[in-house]
Amino acid sequence: xxxxxxxxxxxxxxxxxxxxxxxxxxxxxxxxxxxxxxxxxxxxxxxxxxxxxxxxxxxxxxxxxxxxxxxxxxxxxxxxxxxxxxxxxxxxxxxxxxxxxxxxxxxxxxxxxxxxxxxxxxxxxxxxxxxxxxxxxxxxxxxxxxxxxxxxxxxxxxxxxxxxxxxxxxxxxxxxxxxxxxxxxxxxxxxxxxxxxxxxxxxxxxxxxxxxxxxxxxxxxxxxxxxxxxxxxxxxxxxxxxxxxxxxxxxxxxxxxxxxxxxxxxxxxxxxxxxxxxxxxxxxxxxxxxxxxxxxxxxxxxxxxxxxxxxxxxxxxxxxxxxxxxxxxxxxxxxxxxxxxxxxxxxxxxxxxxxxxxxxxxxxxxxxxxxxxxx
Length: 375
Ligand SMILES: C[S@@+](CC[C@H](N)C(=O)[O-])C[C@H]1O[C@@H](n2cnc3c(N)ncnc32)[C@H](O)[C@@H]1O
Known about the structure:
CATH architecture of the largest domain: 3-Layer(aba) Sandwich
Structural class: alpha/beta
Bound molecules: S-adenosylmethionine
CATH class of the largest domain: Alpha Beta
Number of strands: 10
CATH superfamily of the largest domain: Vaccinia Virus protein VP39
Helix content: 55-70%
Order of helices and strands: HHHHEHHEEHHHHHHEHEHEEHEHHEE
């Protein structure tokens, strides 16, 4: 006897048969209550189908200096056209498109100011840096089928993140790569929005010494130092990154922050900290690398010490698209790692001996979630 599929599966097949039926689609538009729902679904689907146009409108508005120019003062169409190097019809077309997605807003007399989205963007250096960075991700995604078929990496994102493909292929991390400056600058630009979430959600002041593993140029530690001047701080990253971090930290008056060079895949971690942070680190790596790194963190911590993992995660309610679609494909193109659920981290942490594993809520889980675990 063939077993009956479970209820959920039967329901989903029934629902999908209805949704696919042209008759149902027509009827739902005629019934007032269903029409609302159908319109909402249609609008969000249309947003996905046409989303690339909005992304490119945004890129053009940023690249042509329209967002930066309007951030300082309103301007007329002719002025914006001249400074952007566009003729009037092209500038008008772009401004109308940008207004439709709330990047700019028209004023009296053929003048413009920023829209709500444009204003929020103009004040966010991290988001602007990501818009620039996304050009290479966009190139990698030009043929998504080819990207999925050829396997992970092999494109521009993989070249940008010089350590990632090597980690995915289990080769040693490159120790003298000028590319580290480019990705570290990108990370530093987007770090303040992550640090703010973390510092608001957890009391770092109750720790004695913090070691930030994969700490880049020290942008996170600089934010921690500003809020908790009494906390001893140390950073660990690949040797060229740690060397650059030393210079950056010194120039910011943070000479007391230690910068250790090494690879967490090959070297032990420095000991002496009662709090270790892994900020946007683990999702870059495959499970074997992550399990080995977590075991090293466990070994480096004293009994009772704390590990804090911070990154966007898969299965985040309300931000599924960020965790699973954006990071899923981003990390695939980059050549290693995967977005993980909180549950997946619990299993990995327990497997190396951590306990008291819990999630600490952040205000914007889309930017970062936080997991705490104790040795
Ligand atoms: C995505 S960035 C995150 C940087 C920083 N934590 C932040 O959130 O801004 C990943 C960092 O991990 C470092 N990293 C990658 N592989 C490493 C390894 N094997 N050993 C030490 N650091 C490594 C990179 O150099 C980079 O600084």
